[in-house]
UniProtKB/TrEMBL annotation:
Site feature (Lowers pKa of active site Cys) residues: K143
Residue stretches in coiled coil: none
One GO cellular component term noted in the UniProt record for this chain: cytoplasm
Entry keywords, A to Z: Acyltransferase, Cytoplasm, Transferase
Lineage: Bacteria, Pseudomonadati, Pseudomonadota, Gammaproteobacteria, Pasteurellales
Primary localisation category: cytoplasm
Organism field: Lonepinella koalarum
Sequence ranges assigned to domain BPL/LPL catalytic in this UniProt record: 31-217
Transmembrane segments: none
Record function comment: Catalyzes the transfer of endogenously produced octanoic acid from octanoyl-acyl-carrier-protein onto the lipoyl domains of lipoate-dependent enzymes. Lipoyl-ACP can also act as a substrate although octanoyl-ACP is likely to be the physiological substrate.
Protein name (record): Octanoyltransferase
A Pfam family this chain is assigned to: LplA-B_cat
GO BP, one annotated term: protein lipoylation
Length: 223
C-alpha cells in the first residue's frame, strides 16, 4: 500500500480523553485521511464494552468504571500496559482489492501480539471463541492481551491492550472479558523485568502489525 501509516505516541493519558479523540477522528476523517496507530498507557480504569454485563464487576474500588462503545465485556487498563489503538479505513483497503474484514483485522491484531511475544521467546496463541491472546503458564491458560473494536463509517477504532509490567491486582475485581476465573498474566512474568517495558515492546508490536497489513510507509509522531 502507498497509503502512509501514522504512528502517534501519546504517553500516559486518561481513557475518556483518548476515547473521545478517537471518536472525533473517525467522524471527521475522509477517503484521503491516513490510517493511524495510537500508542498509549492509561491511568487506572475499568471499561465496559457495549454488551458489558454489570455482574462482571465483582467488587467496587476507587478505580472508575467507564461505559465504552467498543465490543466485548469489562477489562482493566493501567500503567505498564501497552494499549494500541488502530484507526483503520477498512473500506479503503477493500476498495484497493485487499480482503480486510473486521475478522481479518482482529486476526492481524492477535498475530501482531503473538509475533511480538515470540521475539521474547514467549509462545502465545489466539482462540477462535474468545478474542485476545493467551499463554500457557505452568499448565494454566492465562490471558496476556485483550481486544475490542468499534467500526463506524467503515473505519475502526479502539484496539488491543497488552500487559507488559503492571499491577495485575485490579483484574481480580472483575471477570476479565466476561470470563469467571480467567487469570491474567504479563510479559514481565516470562522475561527479565528490565526488558519488559512499553518503550521496548511498542516498536516491535507496530512493526509486526504494519507488515501483516502491508503498510510500507510509516510516519512517527510523539504527541
Amino acid at each position: 500500500m502507498n497509503i502512509p501509516l501514522i504512528i502517534r505516541q501519546l504517553g500516559r493519558q486518561d481513557y475518556q480523553d483518548v476515547w473521545h479523540q478517537m471518536q472525533a477522528f473517525t467522524d471527521q476523517r475522509d477517503e484521503n485521511t491516513a490510517d493511524e496507530i495510537w500508542l498509549v498507557q492509561h491511568n487506572p480504569v475499568f471499561t465496559q464494552g457495549q454488551a458489558g454485563k454489570p455482574e462482571h464487576l465483582l467488587q467496587t474500588s476507587n478505580i472508575p468504571v467507564v461505559q465504552s462503545d467498543r465490543g466485548g465485556q469489562i477489562t482493566y487498563h493501567g500503567p505498564g500496559q501497552q494499549v494500541m489503538y488502530v484507526l483503520i479505513d477498512i473500506k479503503r483497503h477493500k476498495a484497493a482489492g485487499r480482503d480486510l474484514s473486521v475478522r481479518h483485522l482482529v486476526t492481524a491484531l492477535e498475530q501482531s501480539v503473538v509475533k511480538t511475544l515470540a521475539d521474547y521467546s514467549v509462545q502465545a496463541y489466539p482462540k477462535a471463541d474468545a478474542p485476545g491472546v493467551y499463554v500457557d503458564c505452568q499448565g494454566i491458560e492465562k490471558k496476556i492481551c485483550s481486544l475490542g473494536l468499534r467500526i463506524r463509517k467503515g473505519c475502526s477504532f479502539h484496539g488491543l491492550a497488552l500487559n507488559i509490567k503492571m499491577d495485575l491486582q485490579p483484574f481480580h475485581y472483575i471477570n476479565p472479558c466476561g470470563y469467571a476465573g480467567l487469570e491474567m498474566c504479563q510479559l514481565a512474568d516470562f522475561i527479565d523485568p528490565t526488558d519488559a517495558t512499553c518503550e521496548k515492546v511498542a516498536p516491535k508490536l507496530v512493526a509486526h502489525f504494519s507488515k501483516i497489513l502491508g503498510y510500507n510507509m510509516q510516519q512517527i509522531f510523539n504527541n
